[in-house]
Amino acid sequence: xxxxxxxxxxxxxxxxxxxxxxxxxxxxxxxxxxxxxxxxxxxxxxxxxxxxxxxxxxxxxxxxxxxxxxxxxxxxxxxxxxxxxxxxxxxxxxxxxxxxxxxxxxxxxxxxxxxxxxxxxxxxxxxxxxxxxxxxxxxxxxxxxxxxxxxxxxxxxxxxxxxxxxxxxxxxxxxxxxxxxxxxxxxxxxxxx
Length: 193
Known about the structure:
Blueprint: H1 12-17, H2 20-44, H3 49-75, H4 87-95, H5 102-130, H6 134-161, H7 167-181
Helix pairs in contact: 2-3, 2-5, 3-6, 4-7, 5-6, 5-7
């Protein structure tokens, strides 16, 4: 369904399990950034009613996810660490087209967000199926479902609002690019690392 070119090696979960505090901290900040991204899209495109409605819902859900992760961190007596740089997201951002119209920028931002949500969904699936911690397995299964919904929402909105970008063609380019860069990831205790 996601169309990703390369699946995450399930052994990545072994790396994650070696430091649960690290993955939870990274995950919390990923949720915060996703909420911020949705709010940014609203601020840049307030005239698009359906977009604003959908982005408001996503921002709310992402903040709820942040709170859920933070609650797990507290319940386990762990500490929410500082925000980390996400090299995967930085590499994806470099692929975003920076020229073009305001509408072109909106479509790129939506596809950029869809790509992150697709990979996050895939990583949450891998976690839910392979992590030994039953509480986290269920938690990541539930989040996987939510992330899949966000991914499809971003793609749907890109198709709805595109004025001249061939969204299907551009999405294929995003998938191809992500398939090349993801080979450098899956070796860290982070959601995308």
